[in-house]
Structure formats: C-alpha cells, structure tokens
Amino acid sequence: MEESLCLPGQAAANVRLRIQEKLACVLSNMLGTEVIENGLIGSDLPPAYDDLYEDPEELPTPEDLSEMLKEGTKDSHTKAENTPFVKDFLRGNIKRKVFELVTVAIYHVYSAMEEELDKHQDHPALAPLYFPAELRRKNALEQDLAFLLGSEWRQHSDTAPSQATQCYVERIHAIGRTEPALLVAHAYTRYLGDLSGGQVLKKVVQRVLKLPASGEGVEFFSFPQISSHAGFKQLYRSRLNATDLDKEMCERIVEEANRVFNLNIELFEEFEEIMKALPAEENVAGVPLHDGKGDVSKCPYYMGQGASSSSTICPLHSLEVLLRHPAVILVVAVAAVLASFSIIGFFR
C-alpha cells in the first residue's frame, strides 16, 4: 500500500474532523460568533495583511480579550445553538418569508451598529477595529432586501423592526451614548461570525430557497474586499488583544457579548413562532437535503467540494432524487432480479 493512502481509522477521523469544522462554521455565522479557533485558520497571512498583523506567531493567552470572549461566552453559545430555530435552519428548514424577516432584522441591527461605529471610530477601544471598507454590511443588506422584497422595499410592510429587533437596536444605541467601548462586543460577535462559515450558509439558503447562484439575495454573506477570511480574522483578533483596556472593561465587554447572544436568542424565538404559523413548503424536488436531515456539513461531497465550488448542486442529493423516481425504481428492481439469477447460476 502506498504511504500516501490513509488507513481506515485515520480516514474516519479525518472525516469526523471535517464534519465538525464545517458544522462549526455554519453555527458561527448563524449565531454571530466564532465557535472554533483551530483547524480552519491558516498559519500564513495573505500579503494584503502582512504589514498590519504585528506578530503572527504570538499565541493568545487567557488574559487576551479574544480568549476572554471565547471562553466567557461558551454557555451562551450553547444555549443559542440549541434553539429550535437554529436547529431547523441548519437542517435546511427555512422558508422564504422567514428568511426575508431575518434579513430585515439583521439590516436594522447592522444599521444601528455601523452608525455607532462610525460615530466613535476614533475611540481608543474601537479605532483599531474599524474596517468599514472590509466589513460594512449595511449596503449589502440593502441590495438583498431590494432583491427579496422589490425596489420599493423601504415601503414594504415587513421592513418595520419587530419587538425583539427593536430591543437589540435600542441596546446598541444606548451603549453608543453612554459607553462606546462596549460596542467592541457587538462588532466582534457579529463581524467575526459573518466571516466564519458564511459561504456554506449562503449555499444552503440558495439551494433551499432556489435563489440565483450569482448571489442575488445573499450579498450579506460576501466580503469582496477580504482576500482571506482566516487571515483577516487573525488580524482582527490581534488588534482586539492590543487594545488598551483594563481587566474590568474587558470583563464588561464579555458580559456585553453574552447580552448579544441573549438578544439573538430573542430574535430566534420570534422567527420560530413565525415559522410555525406559515404553511409548509417543499424542498428542492421534495427530497430532504443531503443526509435527509438537511445538515450540509454531513454531506461528503459538499464538505469536500461545495465550499469552494460555484455550483450549488450536490450530486449525492441529485442521485437521491433520481433514485426516488418510479421508473428508476422499476429499472433497479429488474436489474436486481437479473443479477440474482446470474449469481445463482454462477454457484451451481
């Protein structure tokens, strides 16, 4: 056997690791936070960021703000990822009406957050994290709403903020008025979450809602000014850790990040109630996505190819659709009978 071939146990371990990584990416984007730190981030930064990242080999310590945020929000993250809405979304159970309302809610949240970040861009805690060209999401969300709701989307009845959305927006403006440093928690959880697994979630939405492969309706997930998501996240964390904040303020930022999770959970609960009230919609060809549960991270083809391919068609899913066709079932049955006769004859 060639040395380059994996043993069965190694191959299984590799598959499990890749499944975990892809699922973590999807959850990250949905929840607006990073859930993994290793395995997806390359060791080399792209040339565009080499001059910005001061020490790419410096390992984070428990006292670094990025580590405090990661460890300090684990419980909130677990609670959020186990909400029924998030579980359904990851299974591909999302309706267009609800996705439109999700886009509206996120639009209001980002409008408020980016307004406050613009106001306080020179604040010592925020200046190192201010990347409007690379990260700004409001314009992309406006494009998505124009596609989803029409060119007159601002007059659409569904674009008013919901109760949970309004609470989220009010919190952002409140800390902008009183303690702008706490905006770090909002920027961190939202932007780094957007950069984690966005392309995977984008393809899920495109497939389930039959949106154009060219990207209309899901521009929110695209960051054309960032050549490497992994490199930029590394840069962002280094800037985060370099901010001149005392321990008390860092702890308050972690506390605010947990509040952000709770605000998102309230949004998810609203969306879940709306989902329950809407009539059922058929999936593509009436067949559940991939493994029958809708979780794209468990599709071997998509895990290996889908994230880097422009195609939104999974051959495994297509094969499943084909095999459910009555004519194909008949042909397979006849072939099986003929094969059984051949086998019987061979052993006589």
UniProtKB/TrEMBL annotation:
Pfam families: Heme_oxygenase
Residues that span the membrane, as ranges: 327-347
Entry superkingdom: Eukaryota
Reaction catalyzed: heme b + 3 reduced [NADPH--hemoprotein reductase] + 3 O2 = biliverdin IXalpha + CO + Fe(2+) + 3 oxidized [NADPH--hemoprotein reductase] + 3 H2O + H(+)
Keywords: Heme, Iron, Membrane, Metal-binding, Oxidoreductase, Transmembrane, Transmembrane helix
InterPro entries: Haem_Oase (IPR002051), Haem_Oase-like (IPR016053), Haem_Oase-like_multi-hlx (IPR016084), Haem_oxygenase_CS (IPR018207)
A molecular function GO annotation: heme binding
Keyword Phosphoprotein found: no
Statement: the UniProt record of this protein carries the keyword Heme: yes
Gene Ontology biological process terms from the UniProt entry: heme catabolic process; heme oxidation; response to oxidative stress
EC number: 1.14.14.18
Gene3D superfamilies named among the record's database cross-references: Heme oxygenase-like (1.20.910.10)
Family to which the UniProt record says this protein belongs: Belongs to the heme oxygenase family.
UniProt protein name: heme oxygenase (biliverdin-producing)
